[in-house]
Amino acid sequence: MKTTLLIMAAGIGSRFGGGIKQLEPVGLHDEIIMDYSIHDAIEAGFNKVVFIIRRDIEEAFHERIGDRIEKTCARLGVETAYAFQSLDDLPACAPHLPERKKPWGTGQAVLAAKELIHEPFVVINADDYYGKEAFRAIHAFLGQPHADNELCMAGFVLKNTLSENGGVTRGICRMADGMLTDVVETKNIVKTPTGAAVDGVAVDENALVSMNMWGLSPAFIDLLSTGFEEFFRAHSTEELQKAEFLLPIYIDSLLKKDAVSVKVLPTKDKWFGVTYHEDKAAVVESFRKLIEAGVYREELFSDL
User: Fold this and answer.
1) What digits encode the pLDDT tens for the residues 196-209?
2) Whole-structure pTM over 0.90, yes or no?
3) Rounded CA gap, 290 and 132, in Å?
4) Which CA distances in Å does 99 have to 95, 223, 241?
5) Which among 22, 121, 184, 211 is least surrounded, fewest beta carbons within 10 Å?
C-alpha cells in the first residue's frame, strides 16, 4: 500500500530570529529535525516523501537535506517529490492582492501538493519532532478500511509540547469517545512550576493538543480545494491582506458541519521543536539523549 509523508517546509520562522529554522542542524552529524521525521515515517511503513517548499529556498533545501535524503530514500525504495507553495497559486475567485507578502497558511501548503497526492497521507510540520509512536499509529489507521471522510490526528499531551523559552500556541482538543469534536486554538501557553497557564490562568497540562500531524485521505484534497475557494468568498479584500487558510481551522469547520470525522490517536512521546532560537540547544541535547538511549543509531538511517 502506498502511503505518503507530506512535509510542510515552506515557512521561515520569524520568532527564530531569521534564517530557515527547518534547516538548522540538531543531530550528532548535523542531521536536522526532518531527518528524524523521515526516518520514523519510513520505519512505520510510509513509502513516499513529498516536501512542500518555496522556490526561493529550493537551492538551500537541496544542499542541506534534499539531495542527501533522495539518495537515502532511493536506497530504501521510497519515492521522493517536491511541491512549491506560492503566494500566487490561488483559485480563480481570489482577488488580486499585489501588496500581500504573508504566506496563505498550512491549508494552501497542502494544496500545493495536490497533483502529487494520490494515496493516504500524513502531513507534518518540518520543524517539529513528533516521535515514533505517532507515525506508527497514523500509518496503522491509514492502512485500515475506512471512508474517505474518516480522518485522524495525533494527540500530544500538552505538557510534552511546551517550550522552556516562552509561550506557544496549541490547538487544545475536545473529544467524545476518542473522536475529535472541537479544536480550541489557544495562544501564549506558558510552562509554570505547577503545570501550564495562559495569562496566569491554569490550563490542564494533560489535555491532548494538535501539533498539526494529520492522517488524511486523497479525497480530502478536493474538500480542501473547495474550502480555499470558500475562504476567499468569506473574507473582504481588506481582511485578505492578513487572513490565513489554516489546516486545523478548516478541519474544525468540517467537523462542525459533520462533513468529516477525526479519530484522535494519543501519543505519550515528547514533542520538541525550534520555536525560539534558544530552543535549539535543548533540541540538540534531546536528540543526543535519544541516541544514547538507543532510540536512534548514531548513523541515523543505518537501521532501515
Assistant:
1) 999 999 999 999 99
2) yes
3) 12
4) 12, 28, 8
5) 184
